[in-house]
Amino acid sequence: MGADRAARPSIGWAWYGLAALILVSLIGNLIKYMIILVSEPIKLSLSLSDTQIGSLNGLALTLTTAIAAIPMGWLADKVDRRWLLAISVAVWSVATAAFGLATTFPLMFAFAMGIALGEAVLGPITYAMIPDMFPRDKWINANFIFYIAVLLGFAAANWASGLLLAWLDGHRIGLPAVFAGLESWRVAMILCALAGPLLIVMLLAMRLRPLAPQVAVQGDVEGVMAYCRAHARTIIGVFIGFGLSYAAYGAQGAWIPVTLQRSFGETPATVGQTLGQISMVAALAGVGTSWLAVRWLRPRFGDHAPMLVAQGGLLIGLLVSCGLPFVQTAAHLYAIIGVKTVFTIVAMSLSPAVLQFIAPAHMRGRVVAVGGMVTIIFGSILPPFIGFLSDSYFHGPSGILHALSVVVIPAFFIGLIVLRWGSKTLPATIAAASGGDD
């Protein structure tokens, strides 16, 4: 344990590393959100169906990440994580620029898969690196800081993306010749890709605790699947409970901008700015509520406290979701999304801590990858399914909202029930995984 402390970088380098991870995650998430935000202009530009838009946001962006999650998690436990993440940033930057230039749906789908492939390493690396940079008693606080910084930065970027799209719409004539003739959404995607080189330099400057070869070998012998079988109820409950709930929230996020534009006449710029402002307030309220609740409950429930708080957040989020089918105005929908986001963040800001507590240090990257893969599989299915329901059964301006409701509400409910079921064996799993962490 003493050697482990000595190998860990100084606290100053730990905070620098956390800042670099925050910025990388922010840009990666922004690129995916930009695609969601401009889904309606893309649909009009390429004459796509809702099923194709759902496939772009679901299958191309999320299923690819699910397929790549396990090998990326394995690599995250084997190689220099700085270089792995830097290469991934390069891949998604090139794919993002190419996405902005694509003129057919197959090309756009392929480049979206490239973006997802590059971003597949984010989850396994980020949540495996935080315990390597910080001692155990600082994990939850480091996770909170990471989560709130990404959310606030992302919300600010969403707001800025709305301003950017509005500015591009009004200044297309004065743009450089290289952008001449390109639609605003295409220029925005290319601009997002330009952050890649700076991120790569920041990542390569990080200092990390080196991986221990003997521990890695032990992880290979024991195997992630063997560990999951030994703690099946906890693993199933955590992975499926958080995964399905988060996927339902993500599917909602994928279709809400489209709903606001199609059903209530909002512009992409207005949607981006308004949702950005809502997200900033919800992020502060959600993480603040989560932090206070964990601080209050942890003296009594220990490492089980994050799970209890997460369940409470999901329950309230589920109750708020029940208002979706009755929305009549854009303001009403914004209000529901705002309140639901607060309590979903209460839960989701604690899911990394739960994953870290149930994962042994020598296989943390792979365990986190499996959990992420489950979330992503659900996330790849729900958006296109909502699009299919909209195309096939729910027609008219409000059809997409009704399709959204009949998918998101049951998924949230099932996720909460499964998470509650799995929490019964959580303390034993945490005890089994905690050896060697300081």
UniProtKB/TrEMBL annotation:
Any GO CC annotation of this UniProt entry: membrane
Signal peptide positions on this chain: none
GO molecular function: transmembrane transporter activity
Alphabetic keyword roster: Membrane, Transmembrane, Transmembrane helix, Transport
Residues annotated as transmembrane: 12-36, 56-76, 83-102, 108-130, 142-167, 187-206, 235-255, 275-294, 306-327, 333-355, 367-388, 400-419
Location(s), subcellular: Membrane
Pfam families for the chain: MFS_1
PANTHER family on file: PROTEIN SPINSTER, SPINSTER
PROSITE patterns: MFS
Protein known as: MFS transporter
Membrane topology (UniProt): Multi-pass membrane protein
InterPro entries: MFS (IPR011701), MFS_dom (IPR020846), MFS_spinster-like (IPR044770), MFS_trans_sf (IPR036259)
Domain Major facilitator superfamily (MFS) profile: 17-423
